[in-house]
Design brief:
Helix 2 runs antiparallel to helix 3, helix 3 packs antiparallel against helix 4 and helix 6 runs antiparallel to helix 7. It is built from nine helices and eleven strands.
Length: 328
């Protein structure tokens, strides 16, 4: 192999290998294999390697074992990438691109991309070593937030629990290469966990309630037998709405088997809330989603405008959004 080709392979080989492994991971996710086992396996391996390396880095550097450290760093980088890419489809399906939670999906995608391109990752880590700690906390949080609902934990409990556990996972980082005792490192991690729980609770609207997602959403004249009657194509004249005597929002929410979650419909006209309707809790396990609906008969003129119906969890996370327009 020629010199330039070898140099290119050294620079980009790990990046390409990481990307291929990540795409294979994505394929496994879409095939519906045991998601929880894969997520937990990746996460535990990542944390164990991070914890061991946090303790062993200084002795290995002293003894000149640079190749061992490089191999460990590359392995951690690849695990970051695969874990983030593994949960990305769940967050993408659960997000609403016109809402705040789209930024979280962008963060997951950005983390997966950064860890896929080795030269970028090495440049960022060399300048800011703390980036690896941020990536660990973010990756564990994103993974747990998907994994816990798959075993029946409600999204808000999964959200807060993931925040606490991801902060506690950073205890090895607080050791500062052995300069800080384990009790002090654990105390710092506990304080960070408390702050993380409060922060996530305040900002919960910015995190998609993965793996819940809106399987179907349509506005219709009414709902009979849990099926929409005369569904709209996107717009309806105000005169038709008056003749119908109201309009229904039909939504089907996909949720994991065993999960029970309270939801509500939040109706808006031109961005202004016009009603909140609590619905029966959804029960997970249906491939086509748990079907539910609300119907408004109390709309008052003027009726024309842009309407949205947000499907929200009882704790305020947006599952999805239905849109339709009423014309004059």
């Amino acid at each position: 192999m020629s010199g330039p080709a070898l140099g290119w392979l050294r620079r980009w080989g790990v990046s390409l290998g990481s990307l291929v492994l990540g795409l294979l991971t994505l394929l496994v996710f879409r095939r519906g294999l045991p998601h929880v086992g894969w997520i937990v396996g990746y996460m535990l391996l990542l944390w164990l390697l991070f914890a061991v390396l946090a303790e062993a880095r200084a002795p290995l550097e002293t003894r000149g074992h640079r190749r061992v450290l490089d191999a460990a760093d590359y392995t951690i980088q690849t695990l970051y990438h695969n874990l983030l890419l593994f949960v990305l489809p769940a967050y993408f399906a659960s997000s609403t691109l016109s809402s705040l939670n789209a930024f979280f999906v962008g963060g997951v995608a950005a983390g997966a991309l950064l860890t896929a391109v080795d030269p970028w990752y090495r440049t960022v880590v060399r300048r800011c070593r703390w980036v690896t700690h941020v990536l660990l906390g973010f990756s564990v949080f994103a993974a747990l937030n998907v994994a816990l609902p798959l075993v029946g934990v409600r999204p808000i409990a999964a959200l807060l629990g993931s925040a606490a556990l991801s902060a506690l996972a950073l205890a090895p980082a607080f050791r500062r290469r052995g300069a800080v005792s384990w009790p002090r490192a654990h105390s710092a991690a506990v304080a960070l966990a408390a702050a993380a729980v409060v922060t996530v609770w305040v900002g919960r609207a910015g995190v998609p309630p993965a793996p819940l997602f809106l399987a179907r959403a349509v506005a219709a004249r009414e709902v009979r037998g849990l099926e929409p009657v005369e569904p709209l194509g996107g717009a309806v004249p105000a005169s038709t709405l008056i003749a119908w005597g109201g309009i229904a929002a039909y939504t089907a929410v996909h949720a994991p088997a065993g999960l029970r979650q309270s939801i509500e419909h939040v109706w808006r006209r031109d961005g202004v809330v016009t009603g909140r309707i609590a619905l029966a809790p959804i029960l997970g396990g249906r491939a086509e989603g748990f079907r539910t609906w609300s119907r408004r008969t109390d709309l008052r003129p003027p009726l024309d405008g842009r309407y949205t119906v947000d499907v929200m969890t009882g704790s305020g996370q947006l599952i999805g959004r239905l849109r339709f327009t009423v014309t004059p």
